Amino acid sequence: MKRFLPVLLFVVVAFTSCYEDSVGPETPVFTPITLSESSVTVSKNGGTCSVTVTSDYYWTASTSDSWITIITTSGYAGESTLRFRVDGNPNSAERIGKILVMCDDYNISAELVVSQMPSEAASFTFSVDEATLTCQMADVQVSLSDAEMLYLAVTSQELEQYGVMGETKEELLNNYMSLLASNYMLYGKPDYWFVYQGNMADAGVAKTATRYDAEGKVTVYAVGFVPTETVTEEDMIFATAAQFVTPISVYEVPFLPYPKVTFDSEKLSHTVASAAGEVVIDWKLENPIKDTEFYIESSAAWVTATWADNKLTVKYEENALPVARQAKLSVSYGDYVRPVEVTILQKKNATAEPATTLKVTVKGTQFNGILVDVESSNADVVYALTYTQYAEDINWMEKAEQLLGKKNEQIFHKGNLTDYLIKTNVGNYAWYGYDYYVYAVAVDATSKEMTNYAGQTYTQWNVTQILTDVVASEKVTIDISKMPVVTWDLEKSGLVLNDKDYYVRDVEENSTVVLYFKVENPVEGASLKLNGTTLYDSYNVVDGEPVIDNEAGTITFKIDAFDASKTYHYVRPGFKYTNAEDDMWNIVTPDLQLNHVQAAAPAPAPED
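Above: the chain's sequence. Below: its structure in token form.
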């Protein structure tokens, strides 16, 4: 195992002098600061040392090395003793420090070089608890020769995340550890890297199938270092490394083979008769994990399943209803195999009487929906109405789940309906004149009141069973000829059309701007409104909000004084034509912009 090589630095003591009495006016005489030794060598255990200082003037001693403590910090003229203490060296390399002895009045000094012998390199042993080994987790034990040393373990996949450089694997690892120690706070995190102090017993090393090769090994890199700071918080140890004290050690954790489940994908969906029965699906499990079982979850109480002898046995009860029903099973093996879905579609009971009958009559269409009447045989049963572009059957159980609580697309009802409008999405569908089919179905459902992020309440339905066959109407076509259209009176409003946008030019300050509009095919209860909470006003030149008079067909803006420092003012109001429910949101007016170009400042009057 390669060790860090000790580095020895030699520093020559600089001899200078303090100023003494002059022999003559041009020739000063200096007396040097004298140290009895220019350098000292201290054992790895440290201790107290002393040297003799001879000087004609007052002196002070200082050091920038934290492991050296000066006991005698100053002395007077003549011969005196400099005493200092050296801490024990925890490193496997020699370290060198300096003490500066200085004559402050004359800015001259001498240096004492302090060298300390290296300690024996700290070491640790690493082992894996075979009894706890699985395909994802292993317990490791680490014994340290120095229980005060912090220990760091890293998985190999993390090396490339920080972009470290190196020619060899060892160089990469050293650079990676240095990067962590110098630039990042190290903290404990599962399946990443972790920091411990002292010996470790049953410390988990994890891998997952999504991040690592399922059949491969995980390489653990370990290094001991001297910390400068440690803080324990929620079982995590935060640390900043000062110096590495062990070479990097590499270990491979031999995880068990990953479990594997194979099956015939064509047998994961079954259509069964209305009578009770069972379906057996052959599955093969390889590399089973001890104390791990298959977990099976069913979406319906009438379907259950068990696992035994590499077979999944699915049992289903008799269907007493006159409609087909569907259930789904989610089958997983611990956390090791992703859930597999098994679908059971049971046919309807042809001899059963319908629980609920629905009669849907399409009476007509308008630009944003289809007008229908509905007759229900049971006023207490919830049913759903919707429309689709497609004539083929749809999975109503899934459709009902998708449409729960959605506004303007699906509403659940009870009892009869007269002249009910199934609203369509005006912008995406009706505008292009698509054909539609209306569907209805009765469901066994419960409801609860919900509140969305905007504080609005709505009814959330939980559909558990379809009670009737799907009721489908004939094809209908949305009548877009009656769609409301908002237009501007360009001449009366003084509007200019430019690249699909409308502009009001040459607006004067402290004035009133009136725009005129009209609505073709108006809808009862609908009106033109500001689109949003406010308009865009670049320099606040509009006094308040625009006033909209739907009866007169006018929009009035009051303009304040312009900002004389600006040469361009820009206002952009947006409008929409909608009803009280605000479900005609995409019937909007063309873009409208109010622009003013500040007149050039008048030329200054000529001087007399």
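The chain has a mean pLDDT of 75.
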